From TrEMBL:
The keyword GTP-binding applies. Pfam families: MMR_HSR1, MnmE_helical, TrmE_N. It comes from Telmatospirillum siberiense. Homodimer. Heterotetramer of two MnmE and two MnmG subunits. Binds 1 potassium ion per subunit. GTP binds at residues 226-231, 245-251, 270-273. InterPro entries: G_TrmE, GTP-bd, GTP-bd_TrmE_N, GTPase_MnmE, MnmE_dom2, MnmE_helical, P-loop_NTPase, Small_GTP-bd. One of its GO terms (molecular function) is GTP binding. HAMAP family: GTPase_MnmE. This is tRNA modification GTPase MnmE. GO terms for cellular component: cytoplasm. It is found in: Cytoplasm. The keyword Translocase does not apply.
Length: 443
């Protein structure tokens, strides 16, 4: 095996800042610190003030240095942290000095990858670090923290252990029963596997709460042309994100704004007015609007108060349990607004003067919490986990139906392998690149 390289990266944000934190990891980290400071290594894990110079003796900066000898460090290797002043010139000079010392710039996610290799984190925890850094709302931050603390690791490891136990029992039965092999599964294994299958099934039926929370809830504003969809988006976003005009068919592309709705991440999308379009570009806009209506977690179906009692039939067809009914232009209403449409409560608003918008946001927040909040039990946070769990469940079901003990044991082995892939207990090499690629540099 090639000797482990020593890597470095700016772990804090790039650009002008009061402070910048650089991280070095690998066998040459300690020697590099000695060379940069011209002093012996400081006491482990204690911040010390030091002046840093390059090989020519030019002063780079004056700051704090920390020394984390292996294995008690983030990566499990020798690690050095340099807390310097933020700024591009310092970053450039330090980078040159480190390159000259033979260190290499870290790849995205390389620190976390080394931590995983050293057994400091499992894959769900490594993914949680990426999520935590990306978290934009309170609920996202909490979910990532729970996962980093091992909520998913604990659950999946426990399931995997139970599977391995069943597998061991079954294989013992096969090995020691000489002539008359037991048919299929033993009673005890059957009960244990069926219970496990049910638990995994319940975990899978979480309404995609964790994944939605990570990705943000997708909310689409839909309705006929000119009902004020773009005006409503702008009112909620607090800025002129979309073009508003009195010409029907103004919006074509989907315009998205990201909102933090009482801690829940929401992507609100404005769409083209639904109608039989007059020309090709608008037609494409309508096609995109309909596609978004299909995939959205929630729909705001907007009607025009000035057009009442007439209700656009295309919009009406979109109303279901996933929608909130909005009647806009309440300031123009000449008739009393209905309390319900198709049995669903009506939210009256005026995008023009802001009336009713707080009520709409409150209703949206309630829906978001219904879709995203759970019992507090750990939830699946990534499609990668969901796929592996589905494979596990399928293999378990096959094991329960298997005609011989050997076939059942093989399926149980497959199920355990799928579970192990989630936390990275087994068979991980090929997945590592995919997982750590989405990290940013310095993590
Ligand atoms: N009086 C009043 N006018 C409104 C209100 N909301 C929007 N309008 C007006 O209605 C017209 C259409 O508004 P838009 O926001 O462009 O409507 P839209 O639904 O996005 O239209 P398309 O993109 O063409 O489908 C504009 O002239 C707006 O100023 C409202 O609450 N009250
Ligand atoms: K319009
Ligand atoms: Mg519009």
């Amino acid at each position: 095996m090639a000797p482990m390289k020593t890597i470095f990266a700016l772990a804090s944000g790039v650009g002008r800042a009061g402070m910048a934190v650089y991280r070095l990891s690998g066998p040459a980290a300690g020697r590099t610190l000695v060379d940069l400071t011209g002093r012996p290594l400081p006491e482990p894990r204690r911040a010390c003030r030091r002046r840093l110079c390059d090989a020519a003796g030019d002063v780079l900066d004056d700051g704090l240095v920390l020394w984390f000898p292996a294995p008690r460090s983030f990566t499990g290797e020798d690690v050095v942290e340099l807390h310097l002043h933020g700024g591009r010139a310092i970053a450039r000079a330090l980078t040159e000095a480190l390159l000259a010392a033979g260190l290499e710039p870290a790849e995205p996610g390389e620190f976390s990858r080394r931590a995983f290799m050293a057994g400091k984190l499992d894959l769900t925890q490594a993914e949680a670090i990426a999520d935590l850094v990306d978290a934009e709302t309170t609920a996202q931050r909490r979910q990532a923290l729970r996962q980093l603390e091992g909520s998913l690791s604990g659950l999946y490891d426990d399931w995997r252990e139970r599977l391995l136990r069943c597998q061991a029992h079954l294989e013992a039965e096969i090995d020691f029963s000489d002539e008359d092999l037991p048919d299929g599964l033993g009673e005890a294994a059957r009960t244990a596997l069926a219970a496990l299958g049910e638990e995994i099934g319940r975990h899978l039926a979480d309404g995609r709460r964790g994944e939605r929370l990570r990705e943000g809830l997708s909310v689409a504003i839909l309705g006929a042309p000119n009902v004020g969809k773009s005006s409503l988006l702008n009112r909620i976003a607090g800025r002129e994100a979309a073009i508003v005009s009195s010409i029907a068919g103004t919006t074509r592309d989907i315009i998205e704004v990201n909102l933090d709705l009482s801690g829940y991440p929401v992507t609100l999308a404005d769409t083209a007015g639904l109608r039989d379009a007059a020309e090709a570009i608008e037609e494409e806009g309508v096609r995109r609007a309909k596609a978004r209506a299909e995939i959205a977690d929630l729909r705001l179906v907007v009607f025009d108060a000035a057009a009442l009692p007439a209700l656009d039939p295309v919009s009406l067809a979109l109303v279901d349990g996933r929608s909130l009914i909005v009647v806009n232009k309440s300031d123009l209403a000449s008739v009393t607004l209905p309390e319900r449409i198709e049995g669903y409560p009506v939210l009256a608003v005026s995008a023009e003067n802001g009336d009713g918008v707080d009520g709409l946001l409150a209703a949206l927040g309630e829906k978001a919490s219904e879709l995203l909040d759970g019992s507090g039990a750990p939830v699946i946070s990534r499609a990668r986990h969901r796929r592996a769990l589905e494979e596990t469940e399928t293999a378990l079901r096959r094991a329960l139906e298997a005609s011989s003990a050997e076939l059942a044991a093989e399926d149980i082995r497959l199920a355990g392998r799928e579970l192990g892939r989630i936390t990275g207990r087994i068979d991980v090499e090929e997945m590592l690149d995919v997982i750590f690629r989405e990290f940013c540099i310095g993590k």
